[in-house]
Amino acid sequence: MEGIQLMDFSQELSTPVESLLQPAFFDTWWLEADYSENVQDSVAPITSSRSASAPTSASDCDSTIDLISPQILVPKKQDTAHVTISPTPGLSLLEQLHIDQPLMEVIANKHKRGYYRCTHCPETFSNIFEYASHMDKYDIRREFKCPFPLCPWKILGLPRRPDLRRHCAIQHKDHLPADLKEMLNLKDETYPTLKCPHQYCDKIFHRKDAYNRHIAIVHEKMGSRFNKRMFQILADCPFDRECDRHRYVKTRMNTRRNSTSESNGNTMMQRQGRRHSISIADIH
Fold first, then answer.
1. CB neighbours of 87 closer than 8 A, spacing ≥ 6?
2. What are phi and psi of 74, to 5 degrees?
3. Dihedrals φ, ψ of 124, to 5°?
4. How many helices (H) and strands (E) does the chain have?
5. Strands 116-117 and 124-125: what pairing?
6. 116 vs 185: CA distance, rounded Å
7. H or E segment at 195?
8. Rounded to whole angstroms, how far apart are CA atoms 127 and 152?
9. Checking phi first, is residue 195 left (phi over 0); if not, alpha (psi -120 to 50) or beta?
10. Would you state the torsion angle of the CA atoms of residues 47, 49, 51, 54, taken in this order, to the nearest 10 degrees?
11. Strand 194-195 vs strand 204-205: parallel, antiparallel, or unpaired?
12. Among candidates 232, 69, 57, which has minimal Cα distance to 159?
């Protein structure tokens, strides 16, 4: 069975965000197919002799687990005439992430508590750098790049056109111009914003599964860190009036969260710098 043929979308994928407002662009790219999580690309039979723990395929998030396109692709030499040139020729995905300092700062300050799951094999990864290294190891190149400059998926890419449309709708919904939302038919009811109903929590979600997981783990679980801290602050609260108590608890909860986030961000940046400087050195 012949390998999957990749069309050359390099000109489209290098289009800046501002140019996405051109109608012709969507006629030939975004609006060509409707999104469906159940649609899978055709695949060749698995013939690799690798161990079960290693992917026998070309491998692949937004969100806690990347479950966008769970198809399995068999590594196969492809006709170079149909392969899109990577954003930075000659550099691995991991190297491209590390040389982009503005992007590295965003990654360091974004605290993802879940994990990344490869969409082409069962492996999971605790951070975006391990995921990129995995894609480099098996020479995975995905053609549909996010057009936002501070998003790691502009480098790692997404498997299919509908995946990229969905990614932008969920991850960048608040940054899309009104004209672009209308052109993409991204109505609020299609990808609704879900605000946590807890009176002392300000979390906002764009995915129903993440919202449900947050409610179950953070608020319904009595022994969660959030609940333990909230009960302690309520016990220490010196106010009797409900409005004063509410303001006091919210202030204390937010103060702790902000200081912890800043500390975690600095620690994460240091750890990632040490760990992945070694990884890049091993590549050369």
1. 96, 145, 154, 155
2. -90, 130
3. -125, 160
4. 11, 4
5. antiparallel
6. 28
7. strand 194-195
8. 11
9. beta
10. -60
11. antiparallel
12. 69
C-alpha dihedral, 35 to 39 to 44 to 45, nearest 10°: 150
Residues 213-272: tens digit of each pLDDT: 999 999 999 999 999 999 999 999 999 999 999 999 999 998 865 555 455 555 555 555
Tell me which amino acid residue 177 is: P
Tokens representing 13?
A: 């994928």
Q: How many residues does the chain have?
A: 284
Q: Which two tokens stand for residue 231?
A: 């009960």
- Residue 150 is given by DSSP the state T
Q: Coil, strand or helix: which one is 98?
A: helix
Alpha helices in 192-241 (DSSP H): 208-214, 225-236
Quickly list H helices, 144-205: 153-156, 161-171, 178-184
For 22, list phi and psi in degrees, rounded to 5: -75, 125
Residue 107 to residue 61: CA distance in whole angstroms: 13
Model confidence pLDDT, tens digit, residues 270-282: 555 554 444 444 4
